[in-house]
Amino acid sequence: MLTAYHNAAKHKSSMRNVKKFAENADENLKQIQNALIEKTFTTSRYTEKRIYEPKERVIYVLPFAPDRIVQHALMNALIPIWDNFFIYDSYACRSGKGIHAGSVRTMEFVRRNKYVLKCDIRKFYPSIDQEILLSIIKRKIKCPDTLWLIEDIVHSFPGGKNVPIGNYTSQWFGNLYMNEADRYIKQELKIKDYIRYCDDFCLFHDDKRFLNECRDKINVFIGEKLKLTFSKCDIFPVSRGVDFLGYRHFDNYILVRKSTAKRVKKRLAALPKLYGKGKISGEQYRSSVASTYGWLKRANTYNLRVKIQLDELKKKVEELP
After folding, report:
1. What's the predicted TM-score (pTM) here?
2. Adjacent-strand bridge partners of 116
3. CA angle 78, 197, 314 (to 5 degrees)
4. Which long-range contacts (CB under 8 A, 24 or more apart) does 229-232 make?
5. pLDDT tens digits, residue range 139-180?
6. Are 309 and 270 contacting, i.e. CB atoms less than 8 angstroms apart?
């Protein structure tokens, strides 16, 4: 519970509800632990928040305590079990994976194949069927107490569909759900060069006709087994550039997509005002600039970095208190 608390509070220590919890953390954690043991815990009511970057989405927010802490505690137990169950080339929210490792792997596939089948799922998280998800979970998790908590979280959103964006558990539930498609593509379709990040995935091959057949079979599989549908599903030569994970991958160089460059400029321009008003700390300011620098350094972005004076900004924020 203590580890879960620290993980849930990471980068949120300045928030009022986190500060209040910290004043009597040991006793508060004991109360949460007892609620789990006695099964009096139930997921709190969601608060809706609408965001517009990179596109309009509804985020569902739960209180820091007990919900965020409980979800971290649950996933501390489940992640080691589930992580071993995933295919190697699943890159979302896994230790040692992530966007940059996925980009490196994508370049490998681009260089040794002529064509790519690139797909994503329509309204993925809102479309996840809760009973199908639970049936997948129950194959690996047999502990009744753990299943009680999982079912409470899964059924906390009414209507039988949706694992809400904003829940810490949702990214892992989504990963487990799409792992069904991963295994079908790798084991049944025998695709060697395949990669997925959340609900975006790419299949690479030299035979365009074969990829067309794969598209039709995957469409049937996700429809019948997972009750999902494609949003986009295109086959094209890799020489056109594979737009994936925020980058456009060519055989000998990488570009940042234009929409990403625009968001970077907008975000960096807003940071000084946020810091000046005390809405972000010096640590958060430095972290945001450093992550942007690391993102852009991995692509052919010298002119963009010069234009937004990123190197100068990086030196400046390193001197902040």
Report:
1. 0.90
2. 204, 236
3. 100
4. 229/121, 229/122, 229/127, 230/119, 230/120, 230/121, 230/122, 231/120, 231/121, 231/122, 231/123, 232/118, 232/119, 232/120
5. 999 999 999 999 999 999 999 999 999 999 999 999 999 999
6. no
